[in-house]
Amino acid sequence: MTLIDSRPILRVGPLRTVANYITVVRTLAAVTLGIVALVSGSVVLIAVAYGIYWLGDMLDGLAARWLGQETRAGAVLDIVSDRACTAVLCMGLVALMPDVSLVAMVFLPSFMVLDTMLSLAFLCWPLASPNYFYLVDRRVWALNWSPLAKAVNTAGVIGAVACGQYSVAVTVALAVLSVKVWSAVAVARLLTRDGLA
């Protein structure tokens, strides 16, 4: 197994990067707007908050790569910030649209627990972020952190909810959950294989 050079990757910071500033701003903006949406009862504001979250999530990743600012601390900040945004916005959706409760009951544990553990697993190898997990295992990476997987994991579920297709949203959430369970088992095997368990 070939891994990337660990010398620069095992560096934690710097913390003050354009990418990390974007992560903090998009998280504060999305969470604040999500709370305002909940208090005011506005589904439109929840949608705008999701837009800020997703646009900011794309921008911080692009900035990190384009500016050479990929760090392990930045990757962890991004992962934690995604969970803060998702928790607030998903629960806001449930409060404003109770029909999405079943979707949330499947999606939230999958994203908040399984996906968090999977996303942080990159720390067990000398990788800058989960985006490089293909260097450990291409299948796990393709199902979790490839551009297509990232889009389906959250946007597929929320997109179906936005279109009023709750049964489709539950089906997508269940499919994502099954992928996360399979991936967790696969990562446990990889940790054992590499003597990290």
UniProtKB/TrEMBL annotation:
Belongs to the CDP-alcohol phosphatidyltransferase class-I family. The keyword Transmembrane applies. Keywords: Membrane, Transferase, Transmembrane, Transmembrane helix. The chain crosses the membrane at residues 28-55, 102-128. The lineage of its organism: Bacteria, Bacillati, Actinomycetota, Actinomycetes, Micromonosporales. InterPro entries: CDP-OH_P_trans, CDP-OH_PTrfase_TM_dom, CDP_ALCOHOL_P_TRANSF_CS. It holds the Pfam family CDP-OH_P_transf. Its EC number is 2.7.8.-. GO terms for molecular function: transferase activity. This is CDP-alcohol phosphatidyltransferase family protein.
